[in-house]
From TrEMBL, chains A, B:
It comes from Cyclotella cryptica. Its EC number is 4.1.1.37. One of its GO terms (biological process) is porphyrin-containing compound biosynthetic process. This is Uroporphyrinogen decarboxylase. It is found in: Plastid, Chloroplast.
Amino acid sequence: MKILPTIYITLLSTTAAFAPPPSSRTFNTLHSTTEAAIASTANDEVNPGDRDILVRCASGKQVERTPVWLMRQAGRYMAAFRQYSDKYPFRERSETPSMAIELSLQCHRAYGMDGIIMFSDILTPLPTLGIDFDVVKGIGPVITTEVRNVEDVKKLKDAESVNFDETLPFIREILTSLAKEAEDANTSLIGFVGAPFTLAAYTIEGKSSKHCLRTKEMMMADENGSSKAMSLFLDKLAAMIGNYGCHQIECGAQVIQVFESWAHQLSPRQFEEFAKPASQKAIRIMKEKYPDVPVIYFANGGSSYLELQRDMGADMIAVDWSVDMAQARKILGPDIPISGNIDPTILFGTKEQIEQAVRDCIDKAGGPGKHLLNLGHGVMQGTPEEAVGWLVDECKRYRGKEA
Amino acid sequence: MKILPTIYITLLSTTAAFAPPPSSRTFNTLHSTTEAAIASTANDEVNPGDRDILVRCASGKQVERTPVWLMRQAGRYMAAFRQYSDKYPFRERSETPSMAIELSLQCHRAYGMDGIIMFSDILTPLPTLGIDFDVVKGIGPVITTEVRNVEDVKKLKDAESVNFDETLPFIREILTSLAKEAEDANTSLIGFVGAPFTLAAYTIEGKSSKHCLRTKEMMMADENGSSKAMSLFLDKLAAMIGNYGCHQIECGAQVIQVFESWAHQLSPRQFEEFAKPASQKAIRIMKEKYPDVPVIYFANGGSSYLELQRDMGADMIAVDWSVDMAQARKILGPDIPISGNIDPTILFGTKEQIEQAVRDCIDKAGGPGKHLLNLGHGVMQGTPEEAVGWLVDECKRYRGKEA
């Protein structure tokens, strides 16, 4: 396989704005460029198993090595990505197919992760229920539709009659193109959704919130029987999200990750009473319709109540970096496939430290099989680009302590 | 016992600025004022066991009921407290004995927790090493002394030769008065210190930080052998903090809580390699000199690696609200006394919900004995004052499922 120097790739990506995605031939030549990749024989030719190694792993099937992708692998740490993010607001980037496709592919071209993930946001489907949002630079998401009581929930659109091709037409266009790109690049296509509680809390608070006090007051009102607004809202969101996951699968996604991004806001009891059953419902909708498509559940900040996540109905549990992988394995049990969980700040370390972290994580998860390597949170802004390559390459190279 | 209406207590507190603390006679009449307290026979007369029930519990001794205090029990949720916090900057309030004493006592007068905690901050002793800080309204603590490398650490003052009576003369004055007040009020006096990693990270970052990237880069430099700045800094801080804890004990504190407030910034590996040995050293210094004074260790945001906290050298482990108390008990084992861990947002619920949360927490911890009730984080601003009373009263009333 021909290896191009990083500088050439960056130039290509930079000039590719709004251009159709590169042809499959070009695409396939733009694989990992780091020293380790050049040295590694495993990466020097296309391995037919790479196409679905991530999907098989998430399904709990035997795999020949630990697959890898990174949350926020398409992100601001890449100069090529910033060419877009500095220029176009988030919704334009994520809802304009040519841009969303390009932004999804950049990192895979550069580092060859085992999956391409659609560039999008967990809030993207909210407008299907009549909830308006924007992502404001320096503030983050801002939601202008008020949902505080039963009447507000009833005013929202019916989750069952959402037509995603009508309300979010760009999703089919993006995923259909990416599915073709993934096939040509011999890799998998990952879709994702936000979990109902997180979307509810975002909506109720209107923006990022330190304590989610309004949301908690609504949960407490539900618990003491003075309102059913929270349960009704979560139920509606769960139905929409389940259907949205199915839609992504129908458009080409081969695996769906469910992001409970605000799990750190929940006490274990609140997780059990509100967030968990709502996520279970969304997952159940996907699994009943598409039993062979694996679902990964990730509760960010929920590592202190992993014991409650054994029965989410998902095929794989993703864990954040605040728990030791060996302890996560112990609490979740030997059978559940686990995704995670390297501390993203490790990517600011040396090549040796990054490679050691990869090996430690794989070994603690029990070696290849039942483990999909990822960070325990998204790639941080400012992460050196080459560090991402070192991580991906070491994961593809390492075969565990026994090898 | 005579019960005064809340309004009268508030007036008294409000007019007490800079006045000497109320005499013990006045003090004793200003006890819990809530309905539950009035109804409870247990609170109607002074129980001699109340004087040291918190200390005995933290030491792992048998207690007749679950004792209770609340992190940030002296805080902005109280109108009487805001009379000071709206007017005087933090350092003035915490370093002027008459104010610090008054602010420590207000909550105990109103709600009768099982301990009075000195109104102070974990950063208070930093100037003893030559590290300057201020607490800026709306920003929080700001530290102006740069510590980034070995030279910076070496420029700091020697931890072993700190004379706390010279550098922080107000501490002896505050604690000596509070010790007398606690004795008169038939309750315990709690001292506290920040853990070395948290103080190091605060200093290195200069202020509150989302990712503590500088601190993590310093830890990684230590790990790859390119610098010893972090180890040296932690070691110096551990010595100072250990000695500072001893000083508080010598001034009258009967129990010391160690706050690792930024444990959420640490991966389990970083906790094990940096934060844990430094905290162990600080705790060891206190326990070697004062083996009978219990030490409580609290890693805020560290509930996902409780398995690493069994051997801190502390008498009791405090847990935050992100872990289920039954799971914390399971991971820590049956013998370790545990403090915690009610979700502070529960205090925005109804009286019934608050009382239920108290009973659930006590039952999950295994009933009275080996459990000191607390929140899993500080009392939040905006918390209704009466809610704190409901929590304290229910804890004092409840004797566990078997009773």
